[in-house]
Amino acid sequence: MRMVVLGVRNLLRSKLRLLVVGLLIGFPFFLLLAFQAIGAAVRGQTEVLKQGVDTSLQLRAKGSMGHVNMVGSYRLLPRDSLEKIRGIEHVAKVEPYLLAMSPTEGHNFAMLVGLNVGDAKRLESHGDAGNPRIIAGRDFTPEDAGKNVALIGQAYARWAGITPENLANARFVVDLTRTHAVIFPLNRPQRELKIIGIYASGYVFGDMQLFMPMETFRGIYGVEKGLSWLFVTADSVDNVAFVERKVREALGDVADVISPKGAATFTSTTTRTVDRIAGTVSLFAVALMAVVVFFVMLVTVRERAREIGTLKAIGASDGGIVVQFLAEATALSIVGGLLGMSLFRALGGVGAERLFALSMSPFLPAQYKDTLFASLGDVSPGIGPSTLALVLLIAVLVAWVGSGYGVWQVTRLSPLEAMKHE
Amino acid sequence: MSEAKAVVQLKAAAKHYPRGSEVVKALDGVDLSIDGAGMVAIVGPSGSGKSTLLHLIGAMDRPTRGEVIVAGQALNALPGKALTRFRRQTVGFVFQTFNLIPNLTALENVTLPMEFNKIEKAERDSRARRLLDQVGLGHRLTHRPGELSGGEQQRVAIARALANNPPLILADEPTGNLDTESGQKIYELLKEVARERTVLVVTHAEALAQMADRVLRIKDGRLVGAE
């Protein structure tokens, strides 16, 4: 016990030495904590960002736009595609659509869309956008399934003479015999739909659509099987690539799969970059800490070889000397660790921002950089006690190895050799 | 003199060091017997082997060949732990550079060998105070080595060497780092210590050596005379 006390007391031999050694050990500690904090803060923020990244794959029949009446491009996805895809792991949602084109005078054509009434109202020319705002009337309800009802875009409504004021009695006649250079006619009876609402998407082509329940569409166009589009949503941005691969395996060569560029960019750059850099630098910091602690301890022991020789000469056992130096190493690495933590508490925010700017920022896509940077503001409290304990434990273990190795080298010598060892 | 009663006995003791392709014979077949209390000075020029002789007697180093027997213990045959016990109980060392532990007080430096010898705290403290009082440092108990003069540090070192009441004190150039007056006082102190035990002192100083009860002269690793 006395040797432990002696070891701990050795810390106070020189306050300057204690400060220098403490800082040497503390700096990599600080670096490690800072990068752990950066990683944690940025990971937290990327989780938020992920929710805004489109994770939907769009499927169409191979080589086709998928419209039921488009000249030269009317092949559909087989109806069993839906069941095959629903069984794939990490698929959160599957939304089927049927599409047809209808000519207009003012514009080239409008788009008629059949969908399950709870699904996103996707805009044909901007397939990744959905659910435009209802500006008059109401949205679909589950009771609308299979009924002759429709939601119409404000531009198409204007063309059809439908306004919010006359919406209560608005009707829209679907006439399949009308043609266009790219639309072929279908010899099917007209169907009158009650317009229940008008939507606005913010751009003209988006507002030239008419949404109706899926079974209503099938009845009008006589499409008993097949689908124009399938939108498959992965449960997270990290699983988009996996789902895409499984979809291709499940459907084989019958479908084109269009994956979201945003998800790919986010996954391949932001998330992976943050993980890789934070992980790499943390490992580097741990390695640096290990090397620094090891050599500081080794030097600390070696510069005191004469003292070890003296202790042996006055009757100290080798075991007692080892205990003394291990106690000193433990205390020193704890002091260094506490110093590193204090530095981190004091300068963690500023330091993390600087380190982020130097290390991660250049590798991140510009659209995410500022948001992630802003998330570093509350970096300080992000380190859990278990992480700190683990890092401290690593420092102590490395200190033991460095100190133990140095002491072993000296204690195995005779007292005289030990005194001359320096 | 009876060999059985000898405190120190060397039989053809030699210590050789390799230096490059050469072998340095620091000590080359020394036969020696020292018994009873008293002060024995070992004198000789630099590099003659006098410190090596002291180190072999104090189990600070092992001989290349020959026998070293101290207080009835054949050091060559002792394993590591027994050598540690020997250094703890049988000899007390006084170094030229004092070799005190810098962050311990004078009192703590003196109690340290007793702690290694597992002596109770109360006994340690009282004995250390008495020893420091004997060497004239009763008023400097709580001073650290850095706060003491060279002569005072060496007196603490002598008190430390006496802590476990060993039969043999080994002093290697104990006045080498001191001025003449302080050196004289240290010699007088060692002379006093030598009333009750054997004190072996290595020195360059011929005048101080003359204060010893016996003078051994050594040259080129061999004993060349005894007075």
What does this structure look like?
The complex is a heterodimer of chains A (422) and B (227). By secondary structure, chain A is of the alpha+beta class. Chain A is 51% helix and 17% strand. Chain A has 12 helices and 12 strands. Chain A has helices spanning 2-9, 15-52, 81-86, 154-160, 214-221, 240-251, 261-302, 305-313, 318-359, 366-374, 385-411, 415-421, and strands spanning 56-61, 91-103, 109-115, 122-123, 126-130, 133-137, 149-153, 171-174, 191-200, 209-213, 229-234, 255-258. In chain A, strand 4 (122-123) and strand 5 (126-130) form a beta hairpin. In chain A, helix 2 (15-52) packs antiparallel against helix 7 (261-302) and helix 7 (261-302) runs antiparallel to helix 9 (318-359). The longest helix of chain A has 42 residues, at 261-302. Chain A is rod-shaped, with a radius of gyration of 35 Å. The two termini of chain A are 28 Å apart. The model of chain A has no long low-confidence stretch (mean pLDDT 84). Chain B has 227 residues and is α/β, with parallel strands linked by helices. Chain B has 7 helices and 10 strands. Chain B has helices spanning 50-57, 80-89, 106-116, 121-134, 150-162, 180-193, 206-209; strands spanning 8-19, 22-34, 38-43, 65-70, 73-74, 91-94, 168-172, 198-203, 214-219, 222-226. In chain B, the strands form 2 sheets. A 6-stranded mixed sheet of chain B has the order 6-7-8-3-9-10, sandwiched between helices. In chain B, strands 2-1-4-5 form a 4-stranded antiparallel sheet. In chain B, helix 3 packs parallel to helix 5 (150-162), helix 4 crosses helix 5 and helix 5 runs parallel beside helix 6 (180-193). The longest helix of chain B has 14 residues, at 121-134. The radius of gyration of chain B is 17 Å and the shape is globular. The model of chain B has no long low-confidence stretch (mean pLDDT 91). The chains are: A alpha+beta (422), B alpha/beta (227). Chain A binds chain B through residues 2, 6, 9-10, 12-13, 306-307, 310-318, 320, 414-417, 419, and chain B through 55, 58-62, 80-81, 84-85, 87-89, 92-93, 95, 99, 101-104, 112-113, 115-117, 160-161, 164.
